[in-house]
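It is worth pausing here to work through a concrete case rather than discussing structure prediction in the abstract. The textbook approach is simple: state the sequence, then state the predicted structure, then interpret. We follow exactly that order.
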Amino acid sequence: MLFVTEASDSTPKSLSDRLPPSVISLGYRLVFRKRRIPEGVFPIENLIGTGLEVGGPSLFFKHSFPVYRSAARVDGLNFAGVTMWEGSIRDGDPYSCAGQELGTQFLGEATSLSMFPEQSFDFVLSCHSLEHVANPLKALAEWKRVVRPGGHLVLALPNKSANFDHRRPTTSMEHLLADFDAGVGEDDLTHLAEILELHDLKRDKAAGTHEEFAQRSRSNFVNRGLHHHIFDLDLLREVFRFLNVEEVAGHSSYYDHLIVGKA
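Step two, the predicted structure:
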């Protein structure tokens, strides 16, 4: 069986180097057919304005929950000019997904969107990205800041059942609040010991051996490969209540948790 890493939306470059394109393409088709969000969960035509995607681009928003199809424009934000998922990118480049040009590429931290004024966007998107952020409440507060009143936060996070995190416990809201209050930075490695013990490398072929994975993980500030926290839909609902964001849709599948909130 082919495991597309963490049921993700872009194959890490290390996995792309090991598998032929035909195999990767087949894996995507199989996974995204199963990841399609049922009609009626949330009317995508509500997301017709200008958005920002943090940590994309994402085939999830192209195929499974096709926001790209309805949006007038989607800009992208990534933490660095070279990542495991996108390869080399530059600030100001076109932001595109699978040949579809969406907007402009920006570089910056998910927890600090200082390049954008308040209420700059109609919505913010994030797919399988928030779990890579050490201080998710700080990030989400920033994402809410740049959304216009009545705009939306659209978050898709991995369901641990389908990926290498299936042995790890779900994070508590108390833990997220403690990280927020302490001002935890993106260089945090609090969860490294737990990850090295419980990460299922059989479901993460791109990570290599335990030693290779451990070495990469210790340099997480550079590569951002770690899943700091494990989310489920109940935790995401607690997060929205803390941020005073109204939940307007929620859905869980074997692969993903999707939650949509109104700012």
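Step three, interpretation. The radius of gyration is 17 Å. Strands lie at 50-54, 73-78, 82-83, 87-88, 94-97, 100-107, 121-127, 147-158, 246-252, 256-262.
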